[in-house]
Amino acid sequence: MAREFDFYIVPTPIGNIKDITLRAIEVLKSVDLIACEDTRTTQKLLNHYDIKTKCFSYHKYNERERVGYFLQELSEGKKIALVSDAGTPMICDPGAVIVSELTNAGYSITALPGACAVTTFLSEIPRIGEEFAFIGFMPRGEKQIEDVCKRFVGHNFVFYESPERIIKTLKTIRSVRGNVKIALGRELSKLFEEIVVDEINDVIEHFNDGIKGEIVCMVYADSETDKSEMDFQIKELKSKGFKDKEISVILSTLCGFNKNEVYKKSLEM
């Protein structure tokens, strides 16, 4: 018999309605309440699997307001499940506030494994090594996007973006990283799923007539990144007021750069 918890974090399909686990269906049927971003969206899933559990709204605009309601219901012995519209809660979806509050209050929490756009995407594109940085939704400001590109020049980095902004975002990335290799996925697990892996110029051209659907994208690390990353780190530390010798010690210790090379480069900047 499975252990019972007070609070369950339950992933839901990111596209194909069949991409839900048997355990997730079992939990959603067994709990007393389901907290969801949009009750209309979740109700479609519940109807499909004949789940009769009552839903209530919990989204980024009422997270803190709902804390008292969660605590009251749990104090009465009720079990609650948290879902998002699609994918895993707290991966760019609400949930962090209530999980923190319930943890502090001593309630037992568990998370079920399941659908997530990031892991689905990464499992179907070519890449070397396991390391990557996840940005979440890319910031909207051009300067902020440029900062992300510079900060992760030495790493593969993954982000979500809307179809309305993706081309503009790719052009901003190109202005910093040049014709870098990227992978772009849209409509994952759905009928019109598409994965494109190419240089950024060709990807922009490919979607020149527009793009639809939920989007996840990865920018590949530059093949020769040590010097550019070192330059970026030096500039960041200089902007914080660190002196050349301090910078050489910090970067040689934390990043493995040659101390003399860092010091020489810092003096030149």
Describe the structure.
The protein has 11 helices and 10 strands. It is α/β, with parallel strands linked by helices. Strands 3-2-4-1-5 form a 5-stranded parallel beta sheet, with helices on both faces. The chain has a 5-stranded mixed beta sheet with strand order 6-7-10-8-9. The mean pLDDT is 92.
Keywords:
269 residues, alpha/beta, Cobalt-precorrin-4 Transmethylase, domain 1, Methyltransferase, Cobalt-precorrin-4 Transmethylase, Domain 2, 3 domains, five-stranded mixed sheet
Provide the β-strand percentage band: 15-25%
Number of helices: 11
Overall number of domains: 3
Multimeric status of the protein: single chain
Could you state the CATH homologous superfamily of the largest domain? Tetrapyrrole methylase, N-terminal domain
CATH fold assignment of the largest domain: Cobalt-precorrin-4 Transmethylase, domain 1
Query: In the CATH classification, which architecture of the largest domain applies?
Result: 3-Layer(aba) Sandwich
Task: Please list the strands of the largest sheet in the order they lie side by side.
Answer: 3-2-4-1-5
Q: Distance N terminus to C terminus?
A: 64 Å
Listing every helix as H and every strand as E from the N terminus to the C terminus, the arrangement reads EHEHEHEHEHEHEHEEHEHHH
What is the approximate shape?
Answer: globular
Helix content: 25-40%
**What is the number of E strands?**
10
Task: Look at the structure and give the mean pLDDT.
Answer: 92
Name of the CATH class of the largest domain:
Alpha Beta
Rg on CA atoms, Å: 22 Å
Largest sheet geometry: 5 strands, parallel
Low-confidence stretches: none
Class based on secondary structure composition and strand pairing = alpha/beta
